[in-house]
Amino acid sequence: MPQGSSHRVVVLVDDNSNPFELSCAIEIFGLPRPELDRDLYDFALCAARPQTRMRDGFFTLGGVAGLDAADTADTLIVPNRPDVEAQRPAAVLDAIRRAHTRGARIVGFCSGAFTMAEAGILDGRRATAHWRWAHLFRARFPAVRLEPDVLFVDDGDILTAAGSAAALDLGLHVVRRDHGAEVANAVSRRLVFPGHRDGGQRQFVERPVPELRDHSLGPVLAWALGRLDAPLTVADLAARAAVSPATLHRRFRAQLGTTPLAWLTGERVALACRLIERGEPRLDVVARRTGLGTAAHLRDVLRRVTGLSPSAYRARFGAS
Description:
2 domains; single chain; Rossmann fold; globular; 42% helix; six-stranded mixed beta sheet; Arc Repressor Mutant, subunit A; alpha/beta; two-stranded antiparallel ribbon
């Protein structure tokens, strides 16, 4: 696990890479963190050539490390390119294969899944890609277990994000996995970005033209967040919003890409993680304050969401 800035994140940049995802990686993994009094990662950019022409010739990137820097990465972020049918350079694919073989974590943003699949490291693995290219991806790489309607997929040492903005979701998920919920929340606050959107949420969220009345979920979400210790139900949320449960469900799907119950459970788990990180040792207290009921239920839900038991989560992320 990353300790301080000892975990090295390297972004491999290729011709026609999209600068937005590059900027996401820099913002999340590369910037100093004075608000945390420590840096989270050792960060570098690398490329196969001294000058790399970025997407549509917007600008040329120079002054970064050579391709051998990929061989030092603990986490390697692969190139994403909108020209998904263009073959990637052999040297780039070889660098990705070497990193994967020696156990580095490989991350792909948006069309980066095509790069990973072309390198041959996604066969038999779960991954996602932008909905626009899902059909093409399946046709080219049938051995990959594509999940086309989610924001991101965490398959252990292989992680993929569906689209440009989902790069931020996946990046914050990686920080949360490495450093815990408190640190991820601090990074998201600096980004002014939602701290937690579950990877299983839909890529494409419909936002129809609003009617005259304000149907924003903001007030009911704020109301629920202040009452997570209460036995809230979907019916309670619907009553607060003065709509039927079915209407509330439709609005959650349209505006957040998830269900009311899934959102409520996610917020309760996030609060439980923060309480454990802050040093609360009593699981029954954490369960009660988060509305998860019993310590046994807390254990089950935390393990399902984070992959860790409460004791393992405390050992990894708790206050020293």
